[in-house]
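The protein record quoted for completeness.
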Amino acid sequence: MSDRAPTVEARIPASLDGQVQTALARAQDERVAERLRQGDATLWGPPGTPEVANRLGWLTIAERTLDELGPIELFAAEQRDGEVSDVVLLGMGGSSLAPEVLRRAFAGAATGSPPAPRLHVLDSTDAARVRAVQEAVDLPNTLFLVSSKSGGTIEPLSLFAHFFSLVENGNRFVAVTDPGTGLEQLAGERGFLRVFHGDPDIGGRYSALSAFGVVPAALVGIDVRTLLAGASQAWETQLTEADAAGGGAGTGGAGAQLPAAVWLGAALAALARAGRDKLTFVISPTLPGLGLWLEQLVAESTGKHGTGILPVAEEPLGEPAAYGEDRVFAYLPDVGAPDPDTDARVQALADAGHPLLRVPTRGPHDLGRVFLLAELAVAVAGWGLQINPFDQPNVQQAKDATNRVLADFRSSGSLPSVGDASSDRLRELLLGAAAPAYVALMAYLEPSQEFDAAIAELREAIRAAGKATTTFGYGPRFLHSTGQFHKGGPKTGRFLQLIHDAGQDVAIPGEPYTFTTLKNAQATGDLQTLRELGLPAERVRLSGEDPVGALRALTATIKERADRPGRESPEGEHANRESRPEAGSR
């Protein structure tokens, strides 16, 4: 893009301005902007700190990918000119979220004859979701993209085993992985059509502009050259500090000369230290899914060692009085698609004294800049919080827990029994939460827009009760995203796990368990881990064929119990509730 990047605007209330200005002055004194450009690993720890110096490849990956784009473009053009009708990406976390954003943001935008293939992102172990994708594509004319940096992630490898058993043709499979992984070896053994390498000096959540994001985008006709070329403007994006209601930072503040990315990162860290640690995104509808990508970037990078910034994505937008004094709002409008109503509602939040960061975008074609701008800001926030933003020490906990539960299943043939929480206990867990607590809703079931809408209703009810922040994620996706924050961040979370198993199960070739068993093992392992850490965590299994109706009924019951006098003690009923066998243990 040749036009100048939109200017970021910040409104910081006077009560928080001192902390922010101190952080900005420190960023200037320590030459954070200059050192970040140079890839100075000592910003985040002494020389030799693990997972720092060898995790900075994202700083230059856009330029390097642009220089090496020819083979990817040629391969993508060959596939589009052939008989490929669909591309199914089998991935998880960092290998799937950026492609999902690009898929949704550019839906219907690719032109040409023949029409570009359709992209399907499969990052679920729910059997109904696996079947839905399988039924949505023309298998003989589908290209399967197996995407995993480590090459050993259980979800994409299980999905590969299933689809390879249906197609049995290596020429329908492509791998995106780091050099020398088990997936690369598997690709050679099974005769994959192609292997594209990622950069081993980049962690998954920083890989959007590497082969992990570029290959699937190119295959479906997205203009990846524009995305990559626009990324350089992230460094050039500037910021204006506007006066907030009742006073606040002006343009002559300590950070006046800092690039917007550095300003944002330093300010976010300072605000988190001051108790404003719930970074709430309000994003233009022209950028669907961007909140999910930002969620992983922020949560996995900062949520560790008892500190962090909790990203809040796709929460219904409320009035200023609905929020506690633990929020920071990041507004990402599309300057090409004005939205006066949302503009006014966000302005009201700033006028009421909530910190507001306005980060204008130019729509989907600006995502390269937006991706890198966010990565830079989050890396600087890690500096400000004095943590390493490139490791994920608690993600492995979830993987180990799943492996432990699956090992027990192999030996016993069943999964551990976990009982449902009582309605009174749920009311206490959900409606008894107040800021600065947050409630994490975690759903192990088939994703759908209808379920998203039902979850939004529950989120509003929780917020109305005590101004508590809510987050929502589908499992196992969130285990590779906010799961890090759940276990490594501040111990202010409350957790509700929702499970639903629907329809015919799907086998995993070569394993003694099915996708339903795998999904339930992942859920059980995570619940056990949360409880072992002393965190309040409950489960409800949504019964029947309609999980949306079951969730709405649950929400209504919780709200009804909240107003009923003389209810039983939630602690006593919780202590005496019965357990019942887990579905998926067949």
